[in-house]
Design brief:
Elements (H helix, E strand, L loop, with lengths): L12 H23 L26 H18 L2 E6 L5 H10 L2 H5 L7 H10 L27 H9 L5 E8 L6 H6 L13 E7 L16 H10 L2 E7 L7 H26 L10 E7 L9 E2 L2 E2 L18 H12 L3 H4 L8 H4 L42 E4 H15 L4 E5 L17 E2 L11 E2 L4 E3 L3 H13 L3 E7 L7 H14 L11 E6 L17 H6 L6 E4 L4 H11 L6 E5 L4 E4 L3 H10 L1 E3 L14 E6 L1 H17 L5 E6 L17 H8 L5 E5 L3 H8 L8 E4 L10 H7 L4 H11 L3 H4 L1 H21 L4 H4 L11
Parallel strand pairs: 1-2, 2-3, 3-5, 4-5, 9-12, 9-13, 10-11, 13-14, 14-16, 15-16, 19-20, 19-21, 21-22
Antiparallel strand pairs: 6-7, 8-17, 18-20
Helix pairs in contact: 1-2, 1-3, 1-5, 1-9, 2-3, 2-9, 6-14, 13-17, 17-18, 19-23, 23-25
């Protein structure tokens, strides 16, 4: 029976020639995207009118990306593998788009970009053009889960994608410039967490082309022996593929690359067999490939008397001013014709049949792999009821509980009910943040050596801890983008480490919403505990609530910020966040013992509203306007605000105070600004149109003003919060340092309610004296006075 084109992939010589043809075709399409707006197939000599008015893009890394893609295609076909391709080098977008057009996925998802000459021209015209596509791998790039705009996250995304994907190989191309970033440099250690029995494999491929945008790369300028020692020290088995210099026959590189990938695939298969045998093997040395080829390989070797190929000059656009410079125009045509497009594309512009011999089919295509569009695989979490963990307040409001400990108990049930699709990630702080109940049902995954004194370390576990917020963020992102669920917990002050990563993920989600074929993924949820108001023992370095300011500036379609005031509202908030899609949820909740004010039923109602008047906590009489509104957002500010109400009620008979609590911070915006924002009427009904509002806030006061400034009564808002005052001191002294204590709240009410300051000036003096007394007590005794720590909300106070 004669061989079909697809059968050729099972021979030896034919597929390498097909690989070379695919590589040349992808290179041609890459160059075309950078330069051309006409004459896509070079049916005529290039003319200035065929050239784009703005030449944008990055050529230098593209030949290697195309080479790797072509060879992985061959491997997928040959061995029926599931391979996810992650392109780490910056701005490799034209290469990735070129390959996805060749394997027909691009035309399937974007039908106007047909797989023919007209579609090829559309492919070229849209690249880095107004209303077109960006120059890096993005949500609109089929098969991508890694935003290529900012460098450093490719390898950690690869490991996150591999978790709980035992049949997956994640081929991650790492740029040698990217390898110098902190996150990427730390990511090499993630092989200590990957279990080859239950997880997939990560195959790192370093694109060692020698240069960044203007400088040599560090890894390219160290001795080869040192390079190998480095990666062996990380626990890998490095495989070197090099060539492409001085006009070397590309087939030599093709042969070496094919051998390297086959060896790597064999080693991965061996590692999996050993791990899945009755006698588990020790932690393996996973294979990796070092691909050393010239930067801008196959492009212009020299331009205007200066070397280009193999130098930093090949990084972006090797030939500039092509439309105005006839010599450059001729060089571009020679460059593109060197790929022999007449051999690669039929008369109608479609790829020739030879390329199909190494083209995977259907979901095996790397650009169509379901894991690269994780929403296709996503299933809802099985969420346990909250009643078992809820704090019973039937005996009276103010029952003491540790909010995150209650959450940890619930998360243990979530983990038990979702043993393959939910993980908890943290920087060595899962127990510190009181979530350690999860260890009743799971361990921390760990493939390193263990000692008898270790606790909760195992080869299989649903918790991953490594002391790098960047790595846990990246792991969670990779896990979510491939169709699973998770939670990241961190100390509040140090979540700033991932500010940029948060930015990139938020931009990914916002862009993905505009792409019809991108299916929604589970939201990324942060739990920030050990927060600013209870870092009195660690001091100023641990005291910073500013991540909230960073978050709220992102797209309102993406970000949500929650400040649950007690344990039951934290449970309700977490339950809600785990049901959301394509959002970034930030939850701030303390871990220290604190009052629980709301029953679970009340917490559900409050959580659904996002903002509520707590009639029972104020002194407002029905039918009469309040003298002032006391509002709070955050657990500690809520306690202080409620204590301030009791101080004022006891000191000023008949004072009418409305108490408002905000759990969903975005409710403070207008409905035109944020989907959770309030209408003007609703806002006015809560905060009034003219009364003073004293707002006790968890974070920087300016944030409340930023959110609420468009509402009518914003002019009467006086916000108390963190004023960048901190040290190692007692919890209450920390509040006094920032003027967020109950006495300062009460003083501000007296000063802002018309007529009160003149009548109760002595009360202000008394409150100031109390602050001085309590500070002196703390400094003398090393702890806060029982007058503060012993404060309780008394049930008999309700109804006043």
């Amino acid at each position: 029976m004669p061989a079909t084109p697809h059968d050729l992939a099972l021979t030896t010589e034919a597929p390498l020639h097909a690989v070379d043809a695919w590589w040349r075709a992808a290179n041609y399409l890459t160059v075309g995207q950078i330069y051309l707006r006409g004459n896509a197939l070079l049916r005529e000599p290039l003319a200035p009118s065929d050239i784009k008015p703005r030449l944008l893009g990055h050529w230098g890394t593209s030949p290697a990306l195309n080479l790797i893609y072509a060879h992985l295609n061959r491997l997928v076909v040959q061995r029926s593998l599931n391979v996810l391709y992650i392109a780490g080098p910056g701005h490799g977008g034209p290469a990735m788009v070129a390959n996805t057009w060749l394997d027909h996925t691009y035309s399937e998802l974007f039908p106007h970009v047909t797989q023919d000459g007209a579609g090829m021209l559309e492919l070229f015209r849209q690249f880095s053009a107004p209303g077109g596509i960006p120059s890096h791998a993005s949500p609109g790039t089929p098969g991508s889960i890694n935003e290529g705009g900012e460098l450093g996250y490719s390898l950690v995304h690869a490991f996150g994608a591999a978790l709980d994907n035992p049949d997956l190989i994640v081929a991650c191309v790492v740029g040698d410039g990217e390898a110098e970033t902190g996150t990427l440099a730390a990511s090499w250690h993630l092989n200590k967490f990957l279990n080859p029995d239950t997880d997939g494999a990560v195959l790192p491929i370093i694109n060692l082309n020698g240069y960044k945008i203007a400088n040599p790369s560090v890894l390219a300028r160290i001795p080869e022996s040192e390079l190998f020692e480095l990666f062996r020290g990380y626990g890998y088995e490095p495989i070197l593929v090099s060539g492409g210099v001085n006009g070397e026959d590309p087939m030599l590189v093709h042969s070496a690359m094919a051998d390297a990938l086959e060896y790597a695939a064999d080693r991965i298969a061996e590692i999996r067999r050993a791990a899945r045998s009755p006698q588990p093997a020790p932690r393996p040395n996973w294979p990796m490939i070092i691909l050393r080829t010239p930067k801008g390989w196959t492009g212009p070797k020299e331009v205007d008397g200066l070397p280009v190929e193999g130098t930093w000059r090949a990084h972006q656009v090797p030939l500039a001013n092509v439309a105005e410079n006839a010599e450059h125009l001729a060089m571009l045509e020679e460059w593109m014709r060197s790929y022999r497009p007449e051999e690669l594309f039929a008369a109608d512009g479609s790829p020739v049949p030879m390329l199909s011999s190494i083209q995977p089919r259907g979901d095996r295509r790397m650009s169509a792999l379901p894991a690269s569009n994780g929403g296709l695989l996503l299933t809802d979490l099985v969420l346990p009821p909250l009643e078992k963990q809820a704090v019973d307040v039937s005996v009276g409001r103010g029952v003491t509980a540790e909010a995150t400990r209650a959450l940890g108990s619930w998360l243990a049930d979530v983990t038990r009910l979702n043993p393959h699709t939910f993980r908890v990630f943290g920087p060595d702080e899962t127990a510190s943040n009181r979530l350690d109940a999860v260890y009743d049902v799971t361990d921390k995954q760990w493939m390193g050596s263990t000692e008898p004194t270790d606790e909760h370390l195992a080869r299989q576990g649903r918790v991953i801890e490594i002391l790098s917020e960047n790595l846990i963020e990246g792991l969670l992102e990779g896990y979510l983008l491939t169709g699973r669920h998770g939670l990241m917990n961190s100390y509040e002050a140090f979540i700033h480490v991932v500010d940029s990563m948060f930015n990139q993920h938020a931009k990914w989600l916002e862009s993905a919403r505009e792409i019809p074929w991108r299916r929604p993924v589970a939201s990324l949820t942060y739990l920030l505990s050990s927060h600013v108001w209870r870092q009195d023992h660690n001091g100023f370095s641990h005291q910073d609530p500013g991540f909230l300011n960073h978050v709220v500036n992102k797209s309102p379609d993406i970000v949500r910020v929650y400040l649950p005031p007690d344990a039951n509202t934290l449970l309700v908030t977490a339950e809600h966040c785990f049901t959301t899609r394509d959002h970034i949820n930030v939850i701030v909740a303390g871990k220290q013992p604190a009052p629980t004010f709301l029953s679970l039923t009340e917490a559900r109602t409050h959580g659904a509203r996002g903002i509520s008047i707590w009639d029972w906590a104020g002194t407002e009489q029905p039918g009469a306007a309040p003298d002032a509104v006391i509002a709070s957002a955050g657990d500690v500010p809520t306690l202080e605000a409620m204590a301030a109400v009791t101080l004022l009620r006891d000191a000023i008979p008949g004072i009418s105070l409305r108490f408002v609590n905000v759990i969903d911070l975005m409710r403070l915006q207008t409905s035109a600004q944020h989907p959770h924002g309030m209408s003007s009427g609703d806002f006015d009904s809560i905060f009034t149109t003219s009364k003073p509002v004293i707002f006790a806030f968890h974070g920087y006061p300016t944030l409340i003003h930023q959110l609420a400034y468009k509402h009518t009564n914003h002019v009467n808002f006086h916000v108390l919060g963190f004023r960048e005052k901190g040290t190692t001191t007692t919890p209450f002294d920390m509040l006094m340092m920032n003027d967020l204590d109950r006495y300062r709240i009460a003083i501000d009410v007296v000063r802002r309610v018309p007529g009160l300051q003149d009548r109760y000036s002595s009360l202000i003096e008394f409150f100031e004296d109390e602050r001085s007394r309590l500070r002196a007590y703390a400094y003398e005794n090393g702890e806060d006075s029982p007058d503060v720590t012993g404060w309780e909300w008394m049930a008999t106070r309700e109804g006043h």
